[in-house]
User: Which sequence fits this backbone?
């Protein structure tokens, strides 16, 4: 199976590296095209385009200007170690063994507005370029148009004939994939938490759950898609009655969440 995640806006380039092993992104030629476009933007352009503060825009202006085509461990970091948002808090790579990194490298992919499709150990330089940004580049009006054919072709090449895709990416990022061209089963786990008697998607918890499920698959080195239904971290349980062939529902009651908090 192949797991698909979104990137994170929060980055870490200061903590100690957990591994010296790395690879280079396979779509760097496309990243270079985007960087050349971004390097023409002023701080004000970036602020308006990304809808961020002037201070954040200035940080990203310098990131674009300082971006170099030669990647190494002094100017870049492995993607799985660089991203530090809610999803990656759930993934919790701090205790990953070499076997875990090896499995992740083969079975985990991260969508990216700048790098297209990343393997966990691919080096990335600091950036912020969300997939939903309407960055014009040549004949393309936005990043979806820029990446859709490229990323879809890359996924087709990396999915073997018998593999399934576990989509744990956000809607913003997964929209870039032309699913009809994959010819593979796409499973979308949905995480519901109980709130005031109703079960619904709570963004903060759902993001962490996507990372937790990725961790579960990696740590157990799963090969059978059905085994993903056994996922039970943090109190989530698979609900067969509410699930369909492609949408798998995992629910957690308020009692299960409270029990998890008390036991940690």
Assistant:
């Amino acid at each position: 199976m192949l797991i698909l995640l979104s990137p994170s806006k929060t980055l870490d380039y200061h903590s100690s590296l957990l591994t010296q092993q790395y690879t280079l992104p396979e779509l760097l030629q496309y990243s270079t095209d985007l960087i050349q476009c971004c390097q023409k933007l002023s701080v004000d352009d970036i602020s308006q385009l990304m809808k961020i503060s002037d201070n954040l825009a200035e940080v990203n202006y310098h990131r674009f200007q300082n971006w170099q085509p030669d990647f190494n461990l002094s100017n870049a970091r492995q993607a799985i170690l660089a991203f530090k948002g809610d999803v990656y808090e759930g993934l919790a790579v701090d205790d990953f063994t070499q076997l875990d990194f090896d499995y992740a490298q083969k079975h985990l992919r991260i969508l990216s507005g700048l790098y297209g499709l990343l393997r966990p150990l691919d080096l990335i330089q600091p950036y912020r370029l969300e997939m939903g940004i309407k960055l014009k580049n040549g004949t393309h009006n936005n990043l979806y148009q820029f990446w859709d054919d490229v990323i879809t072709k890359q996924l087709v090449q990396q999915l073997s004939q018998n593999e399934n895709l576990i989509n744990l990416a956000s809607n913003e990022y997964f929209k870039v994939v032309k699913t009809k061209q994959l010819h593979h089963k796409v499973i979308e786990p949905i995480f519901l938490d109980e709130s005031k008697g109703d079960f619904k998607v709570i963004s903060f918890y759902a993001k962490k759950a996507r990372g937790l499920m990725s961790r579960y698959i990696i740590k157990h080195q799963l090969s059978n898609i059905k085994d993903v239904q056994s996922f039970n971290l943090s109190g989530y349980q698979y609900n067969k009655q509410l699930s369909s062939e492609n949408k798998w529902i995992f629910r957690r009651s308020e009692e299960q969440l409270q029990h998890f908090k008390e036991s940690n």
The first strand starts at residue 2 and ends at 5. The chain has a mean pLDDT of 94. The chain has one domain: 2-263.
